[in-house]
TrEMBL record:
<dbReference type="Pfam" id="PF13843">
    <property type="entry name" value="DDE_Tnp_1_7"/>
</dbReference>
<feature type="domain" description="PiggyBac transposable element-derived protein">
    <location>
        <begin position="58"/>
        <end position="123"/>
    </location>
</feature>
<dbReference type="InterPro" id="IPR029526">
    <property type="entry name" value="PGBD"/>
</dbReference>
<protein>
    <submittedName>
        <fullName>PiggyBac transposable element-derived protein 3-like</fullName>
    </submittedName>
</protein>
<feature type="domain" description="PiggyBac transposable element-derived protein">
    <location>
        <begin position="1"/>
        <end position="52"/>
    </location>
</feature>
Amino acid sequence: MVKYYGRCKLKQFIKSKPIRFGIKLWILCSVNGYVFNFDIYCGKNEEVDKLSKCALGNLLVHLKKIGLQATGTVKENRASVTNVLEKKAPRGTYAVQNDKNRGINFITVQDSKPVSILSTAASITPQ
């Protein structure tokens, strides 16, 4: 999200983010931070491509099959599995589930609130 408070049709509002107003960008980067490709989010479009109907977990499986590793946060209601942490769990507490058939790790970490992560690249070690 690029911070922007002016008037623009591309401006987005996301309530739970530190930068709430701005222009949303999707960026493909290397591990060194070099940008290969980027796209400015312009709202829903009618283009239908191969991956547009994939849920995040299916997208990660597809990317793994073609040799790409991926990691991303996911909302609890978007994942088919859940990790339960205690209500008053201290920051840094985590729970992990691993799907060995697909090679996906589902990790939930307690920050100020629980954060769920799906990854084909990372595990819990090293922390």
